Methyltransferase type 11 domain-containing protein
Amino acid sequence: MTMAVEISGMLHSNGFSSSSRLLQHNSHFAVPPLSSVFFTVKKRNNLKVISSHSDKLLNEIKPSTSCGCALCNRRQLLGGISAKSLLSFARPAKADSPSSDLLSNAEKVMNELHPSRPEWYEKLYASLLDKGMKSYEAEVEGYKVQLLSQLKGEAKMVLELGVGTGPNMKYYASGANISVVGIDPNKQMEKYAKVAATAAGIPESHFKFIRGVGEALPVLDSSMDAVVCTLVLCSVKDVAKTLKEVQRVLTPGGRFIFIEHVAAPNGTLRRFGQNFLDPLQQFVSDGCHLTRETGKIIKESGFSNADVNMTSIKAAFLLSPHVFGTAYK
């Protein structure tokens, strides 16, 4: 998760200093534990327990020394057959095992597109983001409540792309039995996101942080009920590829929930400022683009239905135009 730093002198007068202001970017349990979510879509933990017991049972089945009658021999035979059958059922097929290709590709793409920055930089970035988002979060709270309330009763597995310091955790907590997978290229965001999850009442076992990028998500196909993305698509290297990855990991009918700042209409003073300052914005804000038409890209990216809405956020002049909504796989 990165932050969008607005250029000095271009900030809106409403609540922001004249120097610069930080904006966030790239920035349930009736469900399987998160340790298994990334590797199998339908794997069930009880199968592991059954497998363990059946292994033990097989080891304990020995010829009886107390009796050689047909009844005892039959019991041993039936016990062995049952244990072997149970073991065969309990162990998932190799197709459901972790894909080393998927994981290695995700790591490779991440290292190519977003290699680790110096530790001091990532720590500073995470700290500033944690402290610099309060006014923005206060203004978008209504939108987040509206959008993320959809997850209650509808989603058990949620992936947040660009989880950052975890400002959305409090909205997930309202949904019973939700588990959250947080993806972010900045490892230093993890401790903040975990604190936010705990403060929101999300059990530790229901939240997992993974370092990664949107262009190659380290989770299996059709494994997530929802993907959430707030102020992220402005900075990914490839928006179209990221949205294809979102569709890949969503279950059929799954939801993609988004809030993103976008380009202002052509011919406006704001758009002129965006065009002029976009190269500098990318340099100082970890690749954040001011002129992306993200709403249009979402509509054209192959979702079965995309509800895209426009709004304006007063917190910053250049970043004021926003799109928000839900798209369905």
